[in-house]
Amino acid sequence: MNRNETKRVQIGNIFLGGNNQILIQSMCSIKTSHIKKVIKQINECADLGADLMRVSILDFKDAYAIKEIVNNIKIPLICDIHYNYKFALIAIKSGAKKIRLNPGNLNNKEEIEKIVNLAKKYNVAIRIGVNSGSLNQNIVRKYSNLETYKLIVLSAIEYIKILENFDFYNIVISLKSSNLFDTIQAYREFSKISNYPLHIGLTESGFDEVGIIRSVACLSPLLLDNIGNTIRISLTNDPKKEILTCKRLLHDLNLYPNYPTLISCPTCGRCEVKIKSLARKTLDFLEKNNVNITVAIMGCAVNGIGEGKKADIGLAGGKNKFIIFKKGKFFKEVKESEALNELFKEILLIKH
Q1: Where in the sequence is the domain holding 320, given as residue range(s)?
Q2: pLDDT band per the 50, 70, 90 thresholds, residue 330
Q3: What is the distance between the alpha carbons of residues 229 and 136, in angstroms, rounded to a whole number?
Q4: Start-end of H helices in the chain
Q5: 304 with 298: CB under 8 angstroms?
Q6: Are residues 100 and 132 in the same domain?
Q7: How far apart are alpha carbons 125 and 12 in whole angstroms?
């Protein structure tokens, strides 16, 4: 199902599905009962562009922390529930706007009905969060001959039936695995048979560039197939890194316009300046000042202007001096020591 055609689900003051917008989310890396730290982390992620944030509910202390957290953040909160349905009830009453349930460890229908009834009362969405590492064992035994991705899809379908039998349709689906191919196949298979909005992600992808490369390899084909209404890139890292990575991926796929584009050369023997440092500082400046233009940082003047000609503005040069160019045309020459400051001044003029 094309993301534009998916069911529209309300989560607090925002809507998921039914359009081409892809919401960005992450998950707090701090125990939820550490209220002040959690609030700080959520608000920092919101400032970077997170539309939603999720917290884990490990015990009653975590569950009872939700009310204070919700009262001090500016984006909808999702609560991750495993094993104990009572955590979901407390979270819903405390202001959570979406609950994630795992079919692998919360499958007592009487308990699910209690969650659903309260979710209806408070207009709270439920994400059926299927994970290949914790599949419903009844389904695994019954369909032991099937491939993993098909078991993931079946688990989601069975749980959807349970919720729909209770007349509940405010549903979001995720079909995650740490295996890239199982994840892609599960989402593609499910999108053919259902119009519920999809939260897409590759679980346990890894740290830094390992997790980023694996996640991008997994999520790009889905996003280009118009699959996915909300995204998380799960990294063994600070959640702020996840938010920035999501924005960069979506931007490069023309799905997130409100973000800068940075072009920088790979360097060669002609390069006499620290391009990595210049590029890093430039991207930080663009992000911090919310300047959504294309900037090129090139290591030499031989190919720099030509290769960066599609940029709104750029630097090219070598030892002791740089050239600032705009739209592929020479603008002015500056000293190496003044290059970044001069570039930033011109960037702000373009912004305004």
Answers
A1: 261-351
A2: confident
A3: 25
A4: 35-48, 60-70, 85-94, 109-122, 137-142, 148-165, 180-193, 208-224, 239-252, 275-288, 304-307, 339-351
A5: yes
A6: yes
A7: 9
pLDDT-based confidence at 272, cuts 50/70/90? Answer: low
Q: Which amino acid is at 229?
A: N
The C-alpha atoms of residue 212 and residue 235 are separated, in whole angstroms, by 7
Instruction: Count the residues in the chain.
Output: 352
Integer Cα distance of 176 and 15 in angstroms: 22
Rounded Cα distance, 263 and 243, in Å:
20
- Domain termination residue (choose one: 191, 226, 252): 252
Cα 67 to its chain centre, rounded Å, is: 24
Cβ neighbours for 142, distance < 8 A, ≥ 6 positions apart: none
Question: 262 — phi, psi (to 5°)?
Answer: -115, 130
- The pairing of beta strand 14-16 with beta strand 9-11: antiparallel
Residue 304 pLDDT: 67
Q: Residue 198 is encoded by which pair of tokens?
A: 């999809």
* HEC-encoded secondary structure of 2-44: CHHHCCCEEECCEEECCCCCCEEEEECCCCCCCHHHHHHHHHH
Q: Please spell the DSSP secondary structure of 99-125, one letter per residue.
A: EEE-TTT---HHHHHHHHHHHHHHT-E
- The answer to whether residues 44 and 147 belong to one domain is yes
Q: What is the CATH number of the domain that holds 79?
A: 3.20.20.20
Give yes or no: residues 185 and 328 share one domain. no
Question: What is the Cα–Cα distance from 39 to 45, expressed in whole angstroms?
Answer: 10
- What pTM did the predictor assign? 0.91
| Distance, CA of 120 to CA of 99 (rounded, Å) | 12
pLDDT in tens, 212-261: 999 999 999 999 999 999 999 999 989 999 999 999 999 999 999 889 99
Shared domain for 272 and 306, answered yes or no, is yes
- Tell me the two tokens of residue 209: 């560039």
Taking residues 129-151, report their average pLDDT. Answer: 91
Report d(CA 244, CA 263) in Å as an integer.
17
**Residues 301, 190 within the same domain:** no
